[in-house]
Amino acid sequence: MPHKMSSDASAMAPWMSVHPLSQSDSVAANALRAGVAAFKGQLAGIAARAPFDEVMERVEARADVTFEADTVGGVSGLWAKPARAHKGAALLHAHGGWFNLGSANAYRNLVGQIASSAGADAFIPEYRLAPEHPFPAAVADVEVCYRGLAAKGINKIAVTGDSAGGDLALVLLSITSAQGYKGGIAPVGAVAISPVTDLALSGDSYETRAEVDPFFTKSQVAGLIASYLGETDPKHPLASALYGDLRGLPPIRVHVGDDELLLDDSRRYVERAVAAGVDAELGVWMGMPHGFVAYTREFDAARQALSAIGAFLTQRLS
């Protein structure tokens, strides 16, 4: 039976929409949960990179998207290019993987889905990973890549990201939207999917969703975050988007599953953004796991969320 949101008060917030769980998605979510139960909390360390990439490479590919290797701002990566794309516009997508895992190539199909839905070319930077390259290497890489896109004459850029990449995207949003930023144009908007925003791991959902999250445990996440942060304060605004200056940001849309340890990372970030005067909205999808948008074969919710993401990005880039 679906459980209540972690905060009854916030569930009534005008900036939040709660999407019910369909019967077909409930069946698919239970099947996924059973399939990954033996691996919950096990993903950690460099040895996990290959199996993690293998999982991400199974995301459904779009027939209308092609891929092209490139270097932008000195950072190598991959373009996902839909057949029909806005001219002079692009997405910069920071991939997930808890700052330790993931690659541009492994995320190409997920980003291809977003690019196709938005009708825009999307660049996936191969940012440096922890533990070999701890904070702030990943932040520096996505920021210099953003500058590189602007230097190419792209005059409308939206930033997107999932999981840890959602944190990088939202941190980048604060950097590039700041008054006096010297890197060129400000982003026109942002989308974060199941983002990490609080590396202090202080959200209530680390407890309230501990049983229902099919993938992660708090102790597992703490180890991955520690390998990224080292001695850095987890509340450093360039480490955790939640603690950044959110004033003056462009419109933001966040999508998260209700069955995620990271539910409150999304809820609290959007709540703070709205309080700072930002046009920010949160979509909470009941019964959905972390990163559910990648499961377009399995979940109606994934396809619906992608459609909403595409409509928002199309509007911001057009």
CATH superfamily, called what? Alpha/Beta hydrolase fold, catalytic domain
List low-confidence stretches: 6-10
Helical residue percent band: 25-40%
Which structural category fits the helices and strands? alpha/beta
Calculate Rg over CA atoms.
Answer: 18 Å
Instruction: Determine the CATH topology.
Output: Rossmann fold
H/E element string?
Answer: HEHHEEEHEHEHEHHEHEH
**Total helical segments:** 10
Number of domains: 1
The 3D shape can be described as globular
Question: What is the subunit organization of this protein?
Answer: single chain
The overall average pLDDT, rounded, is 94
CATH architecture heading: 3-Layer(aba) Sandwich
The largest β sheet comes out as: 9 strands, mixed
The side-by-side strand order for the widest beta sheet comes to 1-9-8-7-6-4-5-3-2
What distance separates the N and C termini?
41 Å
In the CATH hierarchy, what is the class? Alpha Beta
Count of β-strands: 9
Beta content: 15-25%
Features:
318 residues; alpha/beta; Rossmann fold; nine-stranded mixed sheet; 10 helices; 17% strand; globular
How would you describe this protein?
The protein is α/β, with parallel strands linked by helices. It has a single domain (8-317), classed as 3-Layer(aba) Sandwich (Rossmann fold), CATH 3.40.50. 36% of the residues lie in helices and 17% in strands. The chain is built from ten helices and nine strands. The protein has helices spanning 8-11, 23-36, 49-56, 108-118, 137-151, 164-177, 205-208, 218-229, 263-275, 300-317, and strands spanning 16-19, 65-72, 75-82, 89-94, 121-125, 156-162, 189-193, 252-257, 280-285. A nine-stranded mixed sheet has the order 1-9-8-7-6-4-5-3-2, sandwiched between helices. α6 links the parallel β6 (156-162) and β7. It is globular. 53% of the residues are buried.
